[in-house]
Design a protein that fits this description.
With 375 residues, this protein is of the alpha/beta class. The chain contains eleven helices and 21 strands.
């Protein structure tokens, strides 16, 4: 059953309707005066950064976050307007590109700020402060250094932000740690306002911070994985808001064959048929982002029924047992993430089975996958 309207090999189906719905639902959680800084790094977690930014721009979103200079340039080159914050480190030698493409750079420390200022280009920045994650930023209690950076000539510090390390955890100790991070950040804000810094833009909440830790007095929230309708860690997690999965992963059956008792399937002879079975070779593999660690344990959906992966997942193909599914044909569409009939495989569920988080699974979906956008 060749569905000619579908792409040829393996592809992502991305629902712009669900993306818009998630954006609107998350915006309702933001405090008064707080706007969405949509995180579209890692190609919008595999969803296509340019198209996602275009869709959200039409919904009124005018601020985006990326991980690197190159990601920011790609958005600007696609005519994405508004503010674009580079969350990661950028070499000072590339300051001219930050200026040319009107990108806002994260200032990761005092030395970084000084080096950018010495470039001779006017640079817009948001200062990262560390409240306990020990990643990027100046320690929030180091007021002397923070004030020096805020007053460096050649760097226009427009905002200050921090990052919560365990907002997704419901463990008592982790919740206490997150509350401590928030208290440190809000304390810094109060001190700087008292010193006359009234016009800075403040933000701390990523997806789980927005979902579980409502804050007032923030100018931005930075939802990432929540925009795409997924929990990070637990497939059945209650996020307290109705978010809809944006992405499905599908492919075609390349060929079908019978395997006799005693014969083997795929590399390493890890699967031996105990009785005659019928297998389908799928046109997708670990180079497309379907995790190799699911060899022999994963499932896909064929004609509305879940079937097991057999043998090792290859770079470009995956083999599944379709013995129990009648009328399967070469060219049929198979669902690896998403719904087919009454069955569903969620990105979070697949990630958990692979021993990782949804963020990693989605961001590793391969460049060979065609992206199709549907309403």
């Amino acid at each position: 059953m060749y569905l000619k309207e579908k792409p040829g090999r393996a592809w992502l189906e991305i629902s712009t309707e669900n993306l818009r719905a998630n954006y609107k639902a998350l915006c309702k959680l933001m405090g008064e005066g707080c706007k969405c800084m949509a995180v579209v790094k890692a190609d919008a977690y595999g969803h296509g950064a340019v198209r996602v930014a275009e869709v959200l721009s039409r919904e009124g979103c005018d601020t985006f976050a990326v991980a690197s200079l190159e990601e920011g340039i790609a958005l600007r080159s696609a005519d994405i307007r508004g503010k674009i914050l580079v969350l990661g480190y950028t070499m000072p030698r590339d300051a001219f590109l930050l200026n040319r493409y009107d990108l806002t750079q994260t200032i990761v420390g005092e030395a970084h700020a000084n080096a950018l200022a010495e470039s001779g280009y006017e640079i817009k920045g948001h200062l990262a402060v560390d409240t306990g994650m020990n990643r990027l930023g100046i320690a929030s209690e180091d007021m002397e250094t923070i004030e020096r950076v805020l007053n460096i000539r050649g760097i226009l510090i427009e905002g200050i932000y921090s990052h919560m390390s365990v907002p997704d955890s419901k463990e008592e100790a982790d919740r206490a740690f997150t509350e401590k991070q928030i208290a440190e950040f809000m304390g810094l804000k109060e001190k700087l306002i008292h010193k006359g810094y009234h016009n800075l833009l403040w933000h701390m909440q990523s997806s789980y911070g927005l979902l579980f830790y409502p804050l007032s007095g923030m100018q931005y929230a930075r939802p990432g994985i929540a925009l795409y309708g997924c929990p990070s860690n637990h497939p059945e997690e209650d996020l307290g808001v109705d978010l809809k999965p944006v992405l499905s992963l599908k492919c075609r059956i390349g060929c079908i064959r019978e395997v006799l008792p005693g014969e083997f399937v795929s590399y390493g002879r890890t699967f031996e048929a105990k009785e005659k079975c019928r297998v389908a070779v799928l046109a997708v593999g670990y180079a497309d982002g379907f995790p190799r660690c699911l060899s022999g344990v994963g499932q896909v959906i064929v004609r509305g029924k879940k079937v097991p992966v057999v043998g090792r997942i290859c770079m470009d193909q995956t083999i599944v047992d379709i013995t129990e599914v009648p009328d399967v044909c070469e060219g049929d569409v198979v669902t690896l993430i998403g719904k087919d009939g009454k069955e569903e495989i969620t990105a979070a569920g697949l990630a958990a089975q692979a021993g990782t988080i949804t963020n990693e699974l989605l961001s590793r979906l391969g460049v060979r996958l065609t992206k199709t956008y549907v309403d």
